[in-house]
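Risk mitigation, structural track. In case the binding assays with zinc ion fail to produce interpretable data, a predicted complex structure has been prepared as a fallback.
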Amino acid sequence: MTGRIAVALVSVLVVVAPVPAVAAPETDALRGPSVLDGRVVVIDPGHQLGNRNFPRRIKRLVPAGGFRKPCNTTGTATNGGYPEASLTWDVALRLRERLRALGAEVRMTRHSNRPDRWGPCVDERGRAGNRLDDGGAADLKISIHADGSFARGAHGFHVIAPPDRRPWTHDIFRSSRRFALATRAALVDRGLTRATYVAGGDGLDVRRDLGTLNLSDVPTVMVELGNMRHPRDAATMSRGRGRERYARALATAVRRFLALEKCQVTVSPCRNGYGSREHPRAFARLPS
Ligand code: ZN
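Fallback model:
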C-alpha cells in the first residue's frame, strides 16, 4: 500500500465511519439478520405423532428434575382429529425457517412427525441444548405444545416458565421468566388471546413438574399455543395461516428476548432500542 492510498483510505474512513452512527437509529441493532447471527436456538416440537403407538415406551419413568416421570404422553387433538403433534411440528418448522432466515442456528429435539416414531423422553428434551458439540450451550430453548381442556369456554394460550428450584432451575429461572414475558407479549401482539382457564388469566404460568423445563441449563419456556378442544382455537390451529401466526409470534419472542439479553450485558446500545411495540411495559418490571 502506498502512502498516498493509505492517506486516501484514512480520509475515506474518517469521513465514512461516523455516518452509520448518526444515520442508524439504535433500534437498527435489534432488527435484521444480525440480531440472531451465531445464536443457537433449540426448538422442542412437543410430542412425537407415534407416541400413542408405543404405550410401554412412553410410560417408562425417566428423571425429571428431582423426581421421576413418564417418558412422554400422547398429546391432545382438536375435536376434528388434528393432532397436537402435527400442529407443533408444523409450527416448529415454520419457526425454524424464520429463525434461520434471521441468522440463527436451530436444533430440533425431534426430526420427524411420524406414527411409527416415539419420544424423545422429557429428560432428553430437558437436556437438549445444555451442551453443544463445541462445548458451549444453546442461547435458549422453546418447547411448543397445545392444551386439551374440556372446561366450558376454555381457550387461549399460556406460557409456562420454571420456578426457582435449587439445584435444578436456579440458574435459569430469571432469564426464563424474561423469555416467558417476551413470548407472551409477542403472542398478544399477534392478536392471540391469553388463556381464560389457567394461570389466573394472565397467560403466564410457573410449573415445577415439567422435566423439559427442570433439566434445562439454558433459558427456556414451554408454550401452550391454545386449547385444541375450543372451536375458535382449533380453527386457528387447523389452518396454515393460523399456524404461521403462531410461528411469527414465536420468532418475534426469540428475537426480542435475545436482543433484550444483549441489552442486559451492554446496556447503552439498547436504552432506546424498543419502540412501543417492541418494548411492552412488562419489560420495565423485569426481575433483576
Ligand atoms: Zn403437549
